[in-house]
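Data deposition worksheet. Section B asks for the primary sequence of the deposited chain exactly as it was used as input, without tags or linkers unless they were present during the calculation. Section C holds the resulting structure in token form. Section D is free text for depositor observations; keep each observation to a single sentence. Incomplete worksheets are returned to the depositor.
Section A, Depositor: J.P.
Section B:
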Amino acid sequence: METYSLNVAGLQRELPKVKINDELAIASFVMFGDTQLIEACAEAIILHTNFPSVNDIDILCSPEAKSIPLVHAVARRLSVDYVIARKSVKGYMSDPMVEKVQSITTIGAQTLVLDKCDVEKLENKNICIVDDVVSTGGSIIGLENMLEKIDCEVICKAAVLLEEAGYDKDDLVYLEKLPIFKP
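Section C:
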């Protein structure tokens, strides 16, 4: 299998190249189970020169699922809590808030869901969105749109990698760029 050699947060990883469609292949970045990488990236994100002061962030928010260990590690370092926007409505949720988004790595429309109790945790807070990879920005923009409907303020968006797939805003704190490939 063809791979891409990624250097991030002082570590090197070989990422498999995965065909998404006839025109696009990506280097698959999955942090699950790589404790060393998760911890190094969390530390590098909070030390990034464009990351806000720890005193400015009240709570973190992240889309489910690959970024969960990262947001946990960042939250632990900042001594703040975090909320996960789930991918579907769960039976235990009361009055869930739902947002439809399109992601490059998800086939079809993706759903982001916040339970009412999570919405209440986010109200009147300064929020930092944390994700593993931002490609087109569909997930992070969808989450930001969702948060705009709550009385809170997104003060930072942070990710380990910015994939060269279309997100062109300059408001993202990220560690490295990740190229895309033609299959």
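Section D:
DSSP finds four helices and eleven strands in the chain.
The mean pLDDT is 91.
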